[in-house]
């Protein structure tokens, strides 16, 4: 391991030809007397050739943990414990060509409200390791030179003559995450962009909800823990086989109709384990999975008509959450016109003794046969964060590439 100093630039891939994936470990201590817990966050900005953040989707942070071959491992809201507080993984060989530079920063969440600055943060560092061999290559200690800053640019990974290099920056600024984004050309974002998602549902609350609906794409909620584990997670897909304007009975009567001549809508998922194992569960190809054995996901049947009042059901073994990195729930139209506005699809996520989580496929894009419905992301091996997506694609491969699964797809049938 080589210790770096501020301003130093070093080779990554040129000096280490076999280096394809790196892990950045960030850590810090707080020595201040603030009455509030310091909540520091790792942030990654993906920059184009003009020196600007490409889009809001190119900010990898607590509300957007992965994208474009970059993944943030967790959101540590207390900084408790030794070692790395947060980690970032980057698959260098897969970073899209339009990304010229990757900025690594640390920000203080809600710093102005809590009257906190980096003047109270000590022993900040970043380590760079070969993710495949676990060998630590470089380490950069930030020092204790900051005072009023609420964000610090730790370093930058950038392309140079076809190779990747790292530069130790150690530059502070004020304005928290908002100020950091604006410095790199991403302004006028809604205030909700910077607000952290809600904590898990509290089953001991005096208010007992029977259902919780994620209404807009991007809405999130954490699954509840039952006893010490998540237990069984049931994902149910149901849909309308009749034109709602003709049924006259409203949504529920049409969704339980018995018309057998409509759309064949299939439920499936992409899964990714922490060890890199990836795959798909779906009726196409008869890949129904297993609940007790890998991949700990099981699809019970293929309802080809929508006539079943139970629709299609997928069980996820929440007791094996420590194996999972993420799960993408999707549906596709196997047979019939890609007319989502008449399908009225609805996904319900059920846990024992917990409110049902409802995701309606109500943001239509007719003509596209595939819909990414919801993303499950592992939060500290304790729960899944569920995010409503409802984003439409032409097929499996296009959806796969959008969410960085990178599986090999071939035509199939059932």
Automatic annotation (TrEMBL):
List, alphabetically, the InterPro entries matched. Answer: Stress/Tellurium_Resist, Tellurite_resistance_TerA, TerD
A Pfam family (short name) is: TerD
Residue intervals of the TerD domain: 2-184
CDD domains documented for this protein = TerD_like
Q: Which domain of life is it from?
A: Bacteria
- PANTHER family per the record? CAMP-BINDING PROTEIN 1-RELATED, STRESS RESPONSE PROTEIN SCP2
UniProt protein name: TerD family protein
What is the organism field in this record? Metabacillus fastidiosus
């Amino acid at each position: 391991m080589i210790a770096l100093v501020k301003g130093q630039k070093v080779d990554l891939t040129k000096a280490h030809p076999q280096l394809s994936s790196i892990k950045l470990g960030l850590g810090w201590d707080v020595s201040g007397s603030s009455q509030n817990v310091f909540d520091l966050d790792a942030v990654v900005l993906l920059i184009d050739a003009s020196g600007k953040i490409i889009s809001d989707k190119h900010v990898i942070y607590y509300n957007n943990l992965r994208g474009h071959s970059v993944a943030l491992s967790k959101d540590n809201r207390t900084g408790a414990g030794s070692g790395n507080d947060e980690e970032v993984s980057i698959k260098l060989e897969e970073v899209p060509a339009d990304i010229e530079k990757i900025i690594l920063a640390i920000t203080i969440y809600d710093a102005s409200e809590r009257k906190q600055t980096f003047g109270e943060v000590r022993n900040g560092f970043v380590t760079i390791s070969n993710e495949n061999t676990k060998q630590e290559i470089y380490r950069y200690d930030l020092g204790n030179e900051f005072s009023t800053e609420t964000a610090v640019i730790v370093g930058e990974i950038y392309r140079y003559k076809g190779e990747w290099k790292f530069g130790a920056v150690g530059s502070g600024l004020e304005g928290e995450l908002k100020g950091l984004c604006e410095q790199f050309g991403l302004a006028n974002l809604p205030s909700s962009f910077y607000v952290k998602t809600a904590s898990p549902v509290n089953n001991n609350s005096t208010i007992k909800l029977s259902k919780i609906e994620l209404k807009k794409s991007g809405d999130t909620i954490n699954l509840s823990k039952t006893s010490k584990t998540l237990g069984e997670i049931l994902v149910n897909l149901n849909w309308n086989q009749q034109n709602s304007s003709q049924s006259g009975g409203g949504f529920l009567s049409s969704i339980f109709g018995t018309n057998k001549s409509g759309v064949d809508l299939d439920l499936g998922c992409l899964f990714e384990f922490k060890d890199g194992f990836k795959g798909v569960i779906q009726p196409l190809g008869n890949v129904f999975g297993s609940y007790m054995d890998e991949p700990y996901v099981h699809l019970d049947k293929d309802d080809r008509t929508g006539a079943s009042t139970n629709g299609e059901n997928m069980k996820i073994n929440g007791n094996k959450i420590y194996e999972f990195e993420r799960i993408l729930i999707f549906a596709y139209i196997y047979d019939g016109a890609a007319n989502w506005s008449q399908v009225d699809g609805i996904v319900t996520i059920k846990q024992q003794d917990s409110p049902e989580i409802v995701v309606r496929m109500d943001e239509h894009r007719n003509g596209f046969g595939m819909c990414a419905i919801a993303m499950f992301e592992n939060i500290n091996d304790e729960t899944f964060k569920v995010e409503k997506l409802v984003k439409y694609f032409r097929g499996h491969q296009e959806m796969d590439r959008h969410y960085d699964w990178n599986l090999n797809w071939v035509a199939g049938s059932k």
